[in-house]
Amino acid sequence: MEEKIIMDVVPGLEGIPAAESAISFIDGDAGILEYRGIPVETLARESDFLEVAYLLIFGHLPEKAEYEKFRTDVTYHTRLKLKILRMMEYLPENGHPMHYLQAVTSAMGMYYPARDTLDAETRYWSAVRLIAKLPTIVAACHRLKHGDAPILPRNDLSFAANFYYTLFECEPTGLIEEILDKMLILHADHTMNASTFSARVVGSTLADPYTIVSSAIGTLSGPLHGGANEEVVHMIDEIGSKDRVRGFIERKLEKKEKIMGIGHRVYKTTDPRGEVLKGFIKRLADQKNIDTNTLEISRELEAVVKEKLEHKHLHPNVDFYSGIVFKAIGIPTELFTPIFAMGRVAGWLSHWMEQLKSNRIYRPTQKYTGLRRQPYIPIDKRG
Fold this sequence. Notes:
Shape: globular
CATH superfamily of the largest domain: Citrate Synthase, domain 1
Strand order of the largest sheet: 1-2-3
Number of strands: 3
Strand content: under 5%
Number of helices: 16
CATH architecture of the largest domain: Orthogonal Bundle
CATH topology of the largest domain: Citrate Synthase, domain 1
Number of domains: 2
Structural class: mainly alpha
């Protein structure tokens, strides 16, 4: 008689490998994040987002001709079809931009059919369109929600500068353009997080890439995944002044409540992405582009957290610093997570393509805890 194996349930599948991957690597104890073996700090210093997207998706840094083709293809696919823009006009104005982004991304799949996901050309042009059009969708939805007409993208601007232009109808300063580009790099991939797992699960069914990215956006929209940087700004506003920081932290600890932007599921030391953003905060402060109160509160938060929580290996994470940086450069709070998605789409696409190389549809099991062999009771005899 075959023996049945009783498996333990691991909540959230924490620590359970769900796939083999060569895309990104994390050492949470040492504070290391690498894309295809290259430290993320190096890429943030030396590269740009489109080159990093190419690296993630195709597995190697592009040759000059490969990079120029990819950059040109993305640049000339940033515009949205008129019917998509008209559809966006009829979406509720009180909807969160993440819901706009998810709905429009899903709808794009009807305009650019990509059912043959095993075809290399289909995969390439789907990746180009998704990377190119997500920033246009984000900017257009923000403008429409506030009664303004969408701005046509400009092909003469960089990827990051074009997003800023379609959002505000003016070109960014060099520093803001750099920050936006590096922010996309820092958010481009992060191993098997919740939204990436969603992308791989949906991708394993051979669904089209627009459905895959839409599902990942929906996963990212949850406050436990992508919304923490928004909450950091709300927290700073709630604290109000530097002298109230210690009391705020102590009350949170006493009530065992989460402090937004502090601690990470993976990192037990400083988040390497946060270290890059700290450099931008310093540059913004030097140029007086960040208000004094926010700067003072954030620095006091760092100091008190270090004093109270360092022994528990809890440190400010990328969301803590990205919220502060986004606020300093004038990005509306509700767009923080959509911009996260603009960068992470490169990672989602990378994992989708990797999944297809040796695909097996995800079909985990469960541990049943319900009743068995129950009788059926007719409705007139119930109760």
